[in-house]
Structure formats: structure tokens, C-alpha cells
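Hey,
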Amino acid sequence: MEKLLDITLKNRKILQNHLKNTPKEDLFKIPKGFNNNIWWNIAHVVVTPQLLIYNLSGLDFTVEEELINKYRKGTFPDGEPSGEEIEKISEYLFSTLEKIKEDYEEGKFKNYKEYMTTPKVALCNVEDALSFNVFHEGLHLGAILALKRALALER
């Protein structure tokens, strides 16, 4: 468990670096051949554990449901977020991981509803969800790198 959270933390630091150091116009631009942008991928990574860990454990979300609905699987970018929303997501990159760790240590994830992910990985407990989340976040970091390359080629 500790190793999974450590890997996730390292990935989140990389995502924060992209968030802080990518020009705003590039954060929100959708290059030709893509259906989302760098910003959406970062926000999506923040909200997905809310669904895979908290929701499937029958617990309340630890971020606003509005954000979850805006960036969950099956959504697409819809305009530019406010400065307040950008700041919230930036903070949630780390605060939500701390909350997961705290709640895990307190044994809050006891009742887990099994779930089959899109890539056909069965999640049977919170440990499965945390393991899958590492994979999921890696996919989206890869998508961000591809988006950055595509944006550079469009210049």
C-alpha cells in the first residue's frame, strides 16, 4: 500500500510540474487527432480515485461532486476552467492522496463493491483499486506527453 501511494505521489509531482510549467494556451488546447487536452487529463486523474476508491467503498467523495461529474470517464473538455478550479485541482493532486492514506490506515475501505474496468481489470477490493490507479495515472501521463508533442508539431 505504501509503495503504491509513493508511486502515485511521484506521478502527481510530475503532473503538477506540467500544470505549473505548461503555457495556459497549451493546457487547454486540443490538438488535431485528440479529443481532450492536458488540463482535462490532470483533472481526470484527480477525480478518478474518488470513483474507484471512495464511491466503490460506499463512502462520500472528498472533492466536489461537480468536479467529478465534469472530469470523470466519458467526459470531454468544455471550455476553460476558472482560476479557482485550477487551484483546487492543483491542491487536490496531493491532499486527496493524503486523505486516501489516512482513510486506508483507519480501515474505512472495508465494504468494496467489485468493479470491472474498461481494460477488463477486475477490482475486488481497495488494494486492487489503488494498484489499478497507478496504471491509470501512468496512461494519462503518457497521454499528456503525446499531447505536448502534438502541440509542438502544430507550431
